[in-house]
Design brief:
The chain is about 80% helix and about 0% strand. By secondary structure, the chain is mainly alpha-helical. The protein starts with a helix and ends with a helix.
Length: about 210
C-alpha cells in the first residue's frame, strides 16, 4: 500500500520528536545566549566609558590619585579601546612613576587584546618611547622589531628615534644605518626624509 508524504512526515515526527524538541530548545537557548552576551558586552563598554569619563573629571578636579586607580583598573579590563586610552591618559598626565609598572601595563595590553595592526604598532611605539632611557640597546631593538621589519606608518618614527639615539652616543656608524633606512622607506612623510638627510650631512661633516 502507498504511504503519502503526510504519513511519512507524521511517522518521522513520532520517531524523532524528542530529538526535534531538543534541537529547537538548543536553537532558542543559543539565540537567548547570543542576545545576552551582546547586551552584557555593550553594558560593560558603557560602564568602561563612564569610568573613563569619571577619571577625566577627577583629573580636571585635581584628584589624580582617584583618577589613577580608576584608569589602572580599566587597563586590566582588556577592552581594546578603553584599556589603551586609559594607559595613554595615565602616561599623558604622568600619573604612574614606576617604569616597571608602566612596562607591565604595555605588556598586558599587547598580550590580552586584539588590535588592528597599526594600532598595535602605535602601542609598541609608545612603549618604546616610555622605556627608551630604562632598557638596554638590545631590549629596545627587540621591542621595535615588529615595526622596523614592517611597512608600518610608525616605521620612520622608530628609525629616526634610533638614529638620534645613536647620534647622541656618538655611535655614528649605527646612526647612519638608521638614517639611511629612512631614505629607503617608501611612503614616509617628506619631513622624515629631510631630517634623515640633514643628520647624514652632519655625520659626514662631523
Amino acid at each position: 500500500y502507498n504511504i503519502t508524504k503526510k504519513d511519512k512526515l507524521k511517522k518521522f515526527y513520532e520517531e524523532n520528536k524528542t530529538l526535534i524538541y531538543i534541537f529547537i530548545f538548543l536553537i532558542i537557548l543559543g539565540l537567548f545566549g547570543t542576545v545576552y552576551y551582546l547586551e552584557s558586552k555593550e553594558n560593560k563598554r558603557i560602564a568602561l566609558s563612564d569610568d573613563y569619563t569619571k577619571a577625566q573629571i577627577y583629573i580636571n578636579e585635581g584628584e589624580k590619585d582617584k583618577a589613577r586607580i580608576l584608569l589602572e583598573k580599566i587597563v586590566y579590563k582588556n577592552d581594546p579601546t578603553y584599556s589603551s586610552l586609559s594607559l595613554f591618559l595615565l602616561l599623558k598626565e604622568d600619573l604612574v612613576k614606576d617604569n616597571n609598572k608602566i612596562n607591565n601595563f604595555f605588556d598586558h595590553l599587547l598580550k590580552n587584546n586584539e588590535f588592528e595592526k597599526e594600532m598595535e604598532n602605535l602601542i609598541i611605539f609608545k612603549k618604546l618611547l616610555t622605556q627608551f632611557d630604562n632598557l638596554q640597546e638590545s631590549e629596545l631593538l627587540n621591542i621595535s622589531k615588529p615595526i622596523i621589519s614592517s611597512d608600518s606608518v610608525w616605521k620612520p618614527h622608530v628609525l629616526l628615534l634610533f638614529g638620534d639615539y645613536f647620534m647622541s652616543k656618538k655611535e655614528y656608524v649605527k646612526a647612519r644605518e638608521f638614517y639611511e633606512k629612512i631614505l629607503s622607506t617608501k611612503g614616509a612623510n617628506q619631513e622624515f626624509y629631510d631630517q634623515a638627510k640633514l643628520k647624514l650631512r652632519k655625520i659626514s661633516n662631523g
